[in-house]
Write a structure and sequence with these properties.
heterodimer, A: 351 residues, alpha+beta, 9 helices, B: 127 residues, globular
Chain lengths: 351, 127
C-alpha cells in the first residue's frame, strides 16, 4: 500500500522500504544526516501508515477505560495519553496514544497495520452507546520534530502555537477536520499533525518551505532507539507485558482495565525479564536477535532492537535480560556473528 | 548512474579489483555503496589470512543492513585499510580510492580475466 503523499516523497528522492505492508520512505538523503537534522534543527516525517480510530458515544470513555492501561476519566479534554492495550493475561496488544476531545469523543492512534486488531478487540469489549470508526486511510499524519519544530509548526498551523507536550488542538473547529498534538517519537520538541488526506500535501509543502528536512523511517528508528522508545514489532514480540517492557509507568492501577489482575500477580511474583539498554564497549553494531551473554558466555538475554547511534557513534541496543542481570553498569556481551562484543547496561535514554 | 571505472575488473557480488602485478586492491563498487547507504562499520580480516575466490573476507555494515564482501580472486591478505576503523564513511565517499578494503597477494593473476569488465558489470547493475 502507498500513502497519499507517495509521489511527493519520490520527487524528493526518497528510497522506499516495506513497513507493515506500506511502501514508506526509509531515507531521502542519508539516515545519519536526517538523524542529525532532527537533533539539531527540524525534520518532518510522513507517518500516514499509522492508524486512526474515532471512539464516539456516551459510553466511549467507559470503553476506553476498560481497554486502556491508563485511565481516561481524570484526563482533561484536549489531552493525549500514551499507554498500552493488554489482553486478559497482561500481554500487550499494541501501544497507542489516545486523545480526549470530549467524554464522548476519543481518537486512538494504533501502530501501522494494527488498526484491524485494535478495532476488533475494542468492538468485542464495547457495550452501550459507543461507535468505533476506523478512519486510518482517510487521514495523513505529519510529524515535525526538532529544536526548530515549534516555530515551523506555528507557521504552518496556527492551532499549534504554544502547544504543550501531550496537548491536542483541533486545527479548526471540529477535530474531524484535523488536529495537532504535542507528541512525537524522537524525544525532541515538536508535534504531529493529523489531517484529512486532501489537506496533507499543502501542509507538507508548507512545512518543507519553512526549512524542515524530510526524514524517513531509517532515522526514525535511530532517533527513537537513542531515547529508549519501544517499537511494537520489536519490543512487544512474543507476548511481552508492560512490566517487562518498562511501561508500568503508563498504567493506572487504580482503574479496572483488561489484564490488570494478571499484571498485578506478575508484579508480585517479580520474576519477569526486563528490557534494558545496552551500550557496546567495543566497535560493532548489535541487531535484533543477537544473544546477550554473561561473563562465562551463558545466554542471559536477547537483543530486540539495535543500531549504531549517530549521536554517540557507538552501538546501542534494547534487550530483554534475566532479572538477575538487569542492573545498570553490569558488563555483559553481545554475540555478533560468532564474536562476543563487550557491552554495558546503560540507563535510558541513551541520549 | 553510478561510477564504473574502465580500468577495473568486477565481481557480480559488486566487488572491484585493481590488479598491479600480483597485488590486487579490492573494494566495493559505487553502486554497492549507494545501495548500502551510510556505512558505519567495516569488519576486515588480519594480514596473512587466506581466502578462496568467492569466499567472504569481511562485512560492510550500514545503519540498516549487514553485507558480506567476497574475495574476487584467491589470495593472501597483505594489507587492510585501517583508516576505515575511524572513518568507515570513506567507503561511501570514495569507494574506488580512499575507501578500498584490502590488498591481496593473488595466487593466479590470470584469473582476473574471468571477472567482469566495466561493460559487463554495467549490465549486471542494469546501467
Amino acid at each position: 500500500m502507498r500513502v497519499p503523499l507517495h509521489e511527493a516523497h519520490a520527487a524528493l528522492g526518497a528510497r522506499f522500504v516495506d513497513f507493515a505492508g506500506f511502501e514508506m520512505p526509509v531515507q531521502y538523503s542519508s539516515i545519519i544526516e536526517e538523524h542529525h537534522a532532527v537533533r539539531s534543527a527540524v525534520g518532518v516525517f510522513d507517518v500516514s501508515h499509522m492508524s486512526n480510530v474515532w471512539v464516539v458515544g456516551r459510553d466511549a470513555e467507559a470503553l476506553v477505560s476498560r481497554v486502556m492501561g491508563s485511565d481516561p476519566a481524570p484526563l482533561p479534554v484536549g489531552r493525549g495519553s500514551y499507554t498500552v492495550m493488554t489482553r486478559d493475561d497482561g500481554s500487550i496488544i499494541d501501544d497507542v496514544i489516545y486523545y480526549k476531545f470530549a467524554p464522548d469523543l476519543f481518537h486512538v492512534v494504533p501502530n501501522a497495520g494494527r488498526n484491524q486488531d485494535v478495532v476488533t478487540w475494542m468492538q468485542e469489549q464495547a457495550s452501550g452507546d459507543v461507535d468505533l470508526e476506523d478512519v486510518s486511510r482517510e487521514y495523513c499524519i505529519l510529524a515535525v520534530q526538532g529544536p526548530g519544530a515549534p516555530d515551523v509548526l506555528r507557521s504552518a498551523a496556527p492551532a499549534a502555537a504554544g502547544l504543550k507536550r501531550f496537548r491536542v488542538e483541533p486545527v479548526e473547529g471540529d477535530p474531524r477536520n484535523g488536529f495537532v498534538s504535542g507528541t512525537g517519537y524522537t524525544g525532541e520538541r515538536g508535534g504531529e499533525v493529523v489531517l484529512p488526506n486532501d489537506a496533507a500535501l499543502a501542509m507538507f509543502e508548507k512545512v518543507l518551505a519553512q526549512g524542515a528536512k524530510p526524514v524517513g523511517l531509517g532515522a526514525r528508528d535511530t532517533l527513537r532507539l537513542e531515547k529508549g522508545f519501544c517499537l511494537a514489532s520489536h519490543e512487544f514480540e512474543g507476548g511481552r507485558t508492560p512490566l517487562e517492557a518498562g511501561l508500568e509507568w503508563t498504567l493506572s492501577w487504580e482503574h479496572d482495565f483488561i489484564g490488570r489482575d494478571a499484571l498485578l500477580a506478575k508484579k508480585k511474583a517479580g520474576s519477569h525479564e526486563a528490557l534494558v539498554g545496552l551500550r557496546l564497549t567495543e566497535k560493532g553494531v548489535p541487531r535484533q536477535g543477537h544473544d546477550v551473554v554473561d561473563a562465562s558466555g551463558s545466554r542471559v538475554g536477547r537483543v530486540t532492537s539495535g543500531t549504531l547511534s549517530p549521536t554517540l557513534n557507538e552501538g546501542i541496543a534494547l534487550a530483554y535480560v534475566a532479572p538477575t542481570h538487569s542492573q545498570p553498569g553490569l558488563e555483559l556481551g553481545i554475540q555478533v556473528r560468532g564474536r562476543r562484543l563487550g557491552a554495558r547496561i546503560a540507563k535510558l535514554p541513551f541520549v | 548512474m553510478s561510477k564504473v571505472p574502465e580500468d577495473l575488473r568486477y565481481a557480480e557480488t559488486h566487488e572491484w579489483v585493481r590488479l598491479e602485478g600480483d597485488v590486487a586492491t579490492v573494494g566495493i563498487s559505487d553502486f554497492a555503496q549507494d545501495q548500502l547507504t551510510d556505512v558505519v562499520y567495516v569488519e576486515l580480516p588480519k594480514a596473512g589470512a587466506a581466502f578462496d575466490a568467492k569466499q567472504s573476507f569481511g562485512v560492510v555494515e550500514s545503519v540498516k543492513s549487514v553485507s558480506d564482501v567476497y574475495a574476487p580472486l584467491a589470495g593472501e591478505v597483505l594489507e587492510v585499510n585501517s583508516a576505515l576503523e575511524k572513518t568507515p564513511e570513506l567507503v561511501n565517499d570514495a569507494p574506488y580510492e580512499k575507501g578500498w578494503l584490502i590488498k591481496l597477494k593473488v595466487k593466479d593473476p590470470t584469473a582476473a580475466a574471468s571477472l567482469l569488465d566495466a561493460a559487463g558489470y554495467r549490465s549486471v547493475i542494469g546501467e
